[in-house]
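Journal club side-thread
Mid-discussion, someone asked how the predicted structure for our own chain would compare to the paper's figures. Pasting it here so we can look after the session.
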Amino acid sequence: MSARIAGVKPLAWALAVVALFGVAWLVDLATLVTLNVYVILSILALSMALVWGVAGIFSFGQSVFFGLGAYAYAVLALNGQGSAIALGAALLLPVAGAALMGYFLFYGRISDVYLGVITLTASLILFHLVNTVSGSDFRLGEVALGGYNGIPGVPPIALFGQELDFAQLYLLSAALLVLVYAGLEGLVRSRFGQVVAAIREHELRAELLGYDARAHKLGVFVIGAAIAGLAGALHAAWGGFVGPDVFGISFAAQIIIWAQVGGVGLLLGPVLGCVLIQWLTTWLGQTRLADTNLVLGTIFVLCVLLLPKGLLPWLRERMPGRDGGAA
């Protein structure tokens, strides 16, 4: 990286963080509510950046962990357990699910497209399962799971006994986004992250050097699940509702599209793809100019054919003064 860009980068990050938080005082409430969705889903996109971009694990399972986190938060919050316990469960349940699933996937030497198919199948199973648990017989504590109707009335996050309003929830989500990104940056640069990158590039060679590829991949899978679960809890608290669509194939595919459009090789790539695709989806829903799924499918195909690395890596390669250094 050139000295000029190295000097500009910290200032650019500082301005980006200031803008992320400062926008809460510059826009109206309706816009802030929409921006909060982008921030929350960007946290989910970071989990995909870690699992697919850093570790090379092509997984449809991030929607599974997102949904588990959302349902865990909703059920415990509605049962009066408090936000701290509900948020803790929203992390622990996806972690437990990822540890169980990942153990059989990685220690069973399942990889590549087969892993993607299995995680997609898990998403579809949960989608159909949650759809069927309707009626008064399907309750967890005082909470009816609701089947295809979902769980309404999910309470917002409360801190120090005070429920957060939309502006405060946005600030919390923004703070968590910054913390998750900073944590993943540190993870990628750590010895663990370097080993994971080596495994991604050539798993057999890394194992011949003495590294346990299965354990490292399982570790990344579990961390990605925790991040996705956190995003799911924030989303449930933001919307006051959670339904089986969080496990649906459409949502699972959107996460893949975010990563491919933005660029899998960089942590910020899926975040950029998430914001662009969510904005486009919202705009198409408002204008009804075209079918959303058709447009997203077309974008995905075009990105695979024309921008296989994604939009952000393509832009970085064309920045003046770049020397081709690592991201």
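Post-session note: Residues 1-8, 323-327 have pLDDT under 50 and may be disordered.
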